[in-house]
Each structure stands twice: as structure tokens, then as C-alpha cells.
Amino acid sequence: MPRSSKAILHERRIHLDADRWPAATGWVIAGLFVGGMIATVRLATGNWAGTAAVVGVLVAIGWISSLKAARRKQTLARERKEESICGFAHAFDRPTSDPVILRAVYETVQARMGPPVVPIRAADRFLDDLDLDGDDLDDIYGEAALLAGRSTADAEKNPVWGGVKTVGDLVTFLHHQARLE
To answer: N or C end of the chain, less CB within 10 A?
Structure first.
């Protein structure tokens, strides 16, 4: 009996989670970066008052930006509260679509967006609709490919190379990648 895409992804995710860096490593790297930035601003301004002013302005800009992004995401979640992975899957040609790829992309994009959970659509543009940039797309691609059992090698030979703008494009891109053995 064939296993469900959910069961396949669960099994693959267990193996992926074992290979990740400990969370403390990320915090140490972030701390070193912030410390370096503060030291650089201190050298540039020549005093701690100027440093505090520059850092305060940067923190305020970041805070306002994150509030706007959170409101936008809450609005999307509210507008799409009745949608699910089923609607996402129906946007693709059933006979040729790999349900493991569909689920891997859907769940990876949702995880990357963080809370609140926003139902994903095939037509969602990574940058314009989901506020996910090129670095996010690279990470999503790598994780979704592993979860879907697809290779990330020779990606530049993929016919969709350079044309991934939407979530549906990523599904198509992964469909053209070789299966992992």
C-alpha cells in the first residue's frame, strides 16, 4: 500500500532535524554581528551618545517594519482562513503532480513564513505576496528538495532556472529535478 505524502515527509524531516546546527550557534553568530556593528558605529560617531542615537533609529525602523509585515501576514491569514493544502494541490495537474513535492513545498513555505499560519496559493509570489526574498527562496528550495527526495545538483540545467517567482514555479522546478536514490 502506498504511503501518504504526509508520512513520507514526516520520516524525512526527522532525518533533516538531526543534521541542523544547535540554535545557540545562530544566537552566538547574531550576537557577534550586532557587537561588531555597534563597535563600528561607535568608531564612526566618536562617542556613545551618537552610537545610541544611530542604534535607536535603526531599532525603531526595524520594529516599525516588522509591525507592518506582521499586520500584512495577519490580514492574509484572515482572508484565507477557509483555505488549505487541498486548494493548493488542486491548482496543479493531478496526474503529473507529485504529492510529496506539493506537500514539501507547501509546508516548507509555511514554516519559513512563521506564525500566524497563512494558507499558501500556487500563484503566491515569493517577494511581492509572501515577503520572502532570494535567500529565503534558496533555503526553501534546499529543504523542500530534500523533503521531496529531489536532487539540488545541476539546478542551472533545469528548464525553469531563473524563472521561479511563485510557489507554483517552485513546484514545477522541483518536478524537473532528478529524484534522489
So the answer is: N
Amino acid symbol at 110: Q
Cα–Cα distance measured from residue 36 to residue 143, given in angstroms and rounded to the nearest whole number: 30
120 with 146, same domain? Answer: yes
Q: Dump pLDDT digits (tens) for 80-134.
A: 999 999 999 999 988 788 999 999 999 999 999 888 889 999 999 999 999 999 8
Whether 59 is in a domain gets the answer yes
Point out which residues pair with 150 in neighbouring strands: 179
Candidates 126, 122, 154, 150; CA nearest to 138 is: 126
Contact call for residues 147 and 102 (beta carbons, < 8 A): no
Residue 150's nearest CA partner among 87, 109, 111, 105 is 105
Dist CA 52 CA 61 (whole Å): 14
Residue 64 lies in domain: 23-79
pLDDT in tens, 70-86: 899 999 999 999 999 99
Residues facing residue 179 across a β-bridge: 150
Question: CA 126, CA 140: separation in Å to the nearest integer?
Answer: 11
Any idea how long the chain is? 181
**Cα radius of gyration (the chain):** 20
Query: Do 53 and 141 belong together in one domain?
Result: no
Q: For the domain that residue 157 is a member of, what is the CATH number?
A: 1.10.1200
